Amino acid sequence: MFQAAAKTFSVAPTASVCRGILSSIRQYCKKTPTKLRVSEALSSAELGTNVKVQGWVRSVRPQKANLFLHVNDGSSLQSLQIVAGSELCDPLLTFGSAVEVTGILKKSPNQKQTVELEADQIHVVGECNPVDFPFKIKERHGLEYIRQFPHLRCRTNAFSSLLRVRSEATTAIHSYFKENGFVQIHTPIITSNDCEGAGELFQVEPSGPEHEEGENFFSVPAFLTVSGQLHLEVMSGAFSRVYTFGPTFRAENSQSRRHLAEFYMVEAEVSFTQSLEDLTKVMEDMFRSATEHVLAHCAEDVALFHKHVTPGHRDTIDAMMKRRFPVITYSEAIDILNRSSQKFTFPTDWGCDLQTEHEKYLVKHCGNIPVFVTDYPYDLKPFYARDNQDHPKHTAAAVDLLVPGVGELCGGSLREERLDLLRARLEEYLDLRRFGSVPHGGFGLGFERFLQCILGIDNIKDVTPFPRFSHSCLL
C-alpha cells in the first residue's frame, strides 16, 4: 500500500508530505490488531491496544445489553474474559466453539480477573454442538470419564494442565542435563537388541506385496527399542556423560495402572565412576531440579491437580523437597519387610524381586519420601550389572529409586567393565569392553511415572497424551 503511494511522487516528497505518510502508517498500524495468546493477554502487557485472540469458548453468558465469554487457547489454565455488546451475540457462539475475537484490551473492573477484552468483532471459526459434546459446561469430569475420549480430552482443564506440565517437565530434564555437561544422544527406535533380556518386544517387519512373509528387512530380526542403554554404553567410550530421552516400547500386559506399551524414558550414562553414589547423586539432583522447575513454571496447573484431583498431595511433594533421599540396601529392605506386621501378597524372602506393594511400604517406612535401594541380588539384575563379588549373599552394584504413590521410578547400576568376568557371561558384549573400556554406570527414569509422582495421579494412562496399551484404540 505504502510502496504504491510512494511511486506517485516523481520528485522527492516534502517534509510535510513525509509527515503525512508517517501519520498514515501510524493510523494503519493502530487499526491492525496485535495477535496475542491468552497467556500474553492476561499478562496486561498490551493494555489499551487493539488485539486479536483466537481460542475456544469455555463459557457463554448472554445478558440483555451485554455478552460475556471466556476464551482459552491452551496457553494458560486461566481463560480471558470477553465483554461485548448484545448485538454480537451469535447462535453459533456455544461452549466448545472456536472463535476469533478482536477488540481493546482493558483493565477489568471485576476483582475476579485483572484484564478483559472489550470486543468489537467476534467471528465463529468452528461450530460445536454442546448437546453432542461429551464435556459439559458446568460439570467437573473425572479422569476415568475423560479417558474415554482420547481425541477430545485435551479440551478439559485437567488434561490441558497435564500437557503443559508434561511440556515443562521435558524442558526441565533437558535443561538439567545440558547444565551438567551431558551430551544428548538420539538412540535408535528400531534395534536388533533386547537390552534387558526380558523378551517383551514388538517385532518390526516390512509390509506390502513386494515383501515376503517372514522376511527380515535388516537381514536380522528387528524390534522397537525397550531401552537406549546399550547404545549409550557405546557412546560412553568417547563421552564421559551422555543421555537420551525418547520413546520406548514393552510388549507386556499393560492393562494395569502402572504400565504402557509405549512410554518415554530418560536414560543417562556416566563414565569413569565406580561408585553408586555418583549415580544416586545425578538421579536425585535431576528429580529435584525438574520438580522445582515444574512447581515454579506451572504453579496454577499443578495446584489444580493438588486441589481437585489429588487433594493433600502437595504436602507430600513439599516433604520430598525438604529432605535428602535416604539410602538402604536390598538386604535392609528385606529385613524391614519381614519385621512388618503388614501381610503381603508376594513373598519377602531374600532373593525375591521387590513388588509394587513392597516398594510402596518401604517408601512409607522411610517417611513417605523417595528412597534409594541398592545392592540387589546378583541373579535379579541383567548381565551388565557390576558384580560386587561379595559372599555369602551375592549382590550387584544396582540401585532403584522408589517414590511415594508409584514405587520404582528409576533403575540403574554400575556396568561390568572387567573383561575376565564378562568373558564367561556373554561373548558378543566383549567388544565394548575390549577397546578403551572404563568403569561406568547409568540409569533409566520412566517419564510418565515421574509425572505421576509429582501430580499424585494413580493411573499412568492419565499422564500421556495418547496412551498405548494392549487392547487400546489407535487414532
UniProtKB/TrEMBL annotation:
Species: Seriola lalandi dorsalis
EC numbers, comma separated: 6.1.1.22
Gene3D superfamilies the record matches: Bira Bifunctional Protein, Domain 2 (3.30.930.10), Nucleic acid-binding proteins (2.40.50.140)
CC annotations in GO: mitochondrion
GO molecular function terms listed in the Swiss-Prot or TrEMBL record: asparagine-tRNA ligase activity; ATP binding; nucleic acid binding
InterPro entries found in the cross-reference section: Aa-tRNA-synt_II (IPR004364), aa-tRNA-synth_II (IPR006195), aa-tRNA-synth_II/BPL/LPL (IPR045864), Asn-tRNA-ligase (IPR004522), Asp/Asn-tRNA-synth_IIb (IPR002312), NA-bd_OB-fold (IPR012340), NA-bd_OB_tRNA (IPR004365)
One GO term of the biological process aspect: asparaginyl-tRNA aminoacylation
Record flagged with keyword Transmembrane: no
Keywords: Aminoacyl-tRNA synthetase, ATP-binding, Ligase, Nucleotide-binding, Protein biosynthesis
This protein's name: asparagine--tRNA ligase
Organism domain of life: Eukaryota
A Pfam family assignment: tRNA-synt_2
Classification of source organism: Eukaryota, Metazoa, Chordata, Craniata, Vertebrata
